[in-house]
Amino acid sequence: MRHKDFIEVHDYTAEEVMRIFELARDMKAKPKKFKDALTGQTLAMIFEKSSTRTRVSFEVGMFQLGGHALFLSARDIQLGRGEPITDTAKVLSRYVDGIMARTFAHKTVTDLAEHASVPVINGLTDLSHPCQSMTDYFTAWEKFGDLKGRKLAYVGDGNNMAHSLMLAGPKLGMDVAIATPAAYAPAAEMVSTAKADAKAAGTKMVITTSVDEAVAGADIVETDVWASMGQEAEAEKRHRDFAGWIVDKRVMSLAKREAIFMHCLPAHRGEEVAAEVIDSPRSVIYDEAENRLHIQKAIMYTLMKDRDR
Ligand code: CP
Ligand code: NVA
Fold first, then answer.
1. Contacts of 190 (CB under 8 A, 6+ apart)
2. What structural domains and CATH numbers belong to the chain?
3. Mind listing the pLDDT tens digit for each residue in 249-261?
4. What is the pTM of this model?
5. Whose CA is closest to atom 7 on ligand 1?
6. Residues classed as catalytic
């Protein structure tokens, strides 16, 4: 697989996505087999935003592959004081073998990728969260087997999670339906890319303001917070605007009987999801959280193993 970076699932073919899934499944089943895969390698992890799962799963994942991870809070490195991203990318490339970055502006990650000579992994931006969408579809693949013809419904804010679920769904042959309030629709450029990908894959991509339409017949129902990191100042307004947009038992009853519930976490019970759903047997949130580890190990292995250095 000839990719330097992992920025969007859109950049990968359906076959490449499936190769990463198979590798992640193998790594999950036989972790010891890969314990020396990245011996001597270091991953720099730049965080402009908070994290529990991303930080811990990348750090543990790197350790399990025989390598080392370096936590770099943007507040503490010179990037946070205005050092150009180009210099940061070039300097880090002299020390480390890969960079994972969680940033506000998506351009920060794409600029890092452009100027770093080592692989760059998108650990969440305001625009997308591809490690999470890969993980969510991987979790569904474990539960259901082949995903072709199945449907994912996302209910809530048209945010980074919605975007990444839209871009990854067609790679798995899945139909995707996104329901948001009209003022919180996904970004137009992401919708047009996702629609084109769905057309090419022969799958459906529906963007709607109707929860009932989106969730009807879904195999997976997913939601995310109403106010993402960086939107704290809008939180109150968003709470008013999203009133009633809760995934509760009624919403789940519109999906298939065997449908599962997903949430990337952190979650707010009683806001975007009712406790009766997220804490029910249909919920696979902790499997998703665990699978971040396996999917990201597979991504790091794919990008970093056997690279010319
Ligand atoms: N889902 C997710 O990315 O979690 P963190 O913000 O804790 O990393
Ligand atoms: N949409 C959320 C996802 C957190 C993992 C955010 O960006 O804060």
1. 127, 128, 163, 166, 167
2. 9-128+290-304 (3.40.50.1370), 131-289 (3.40.50.1370)
3. 999 999 999 999 9
4. 0.98
5. 52
6. 102, 129, 132, 224, 264, 292
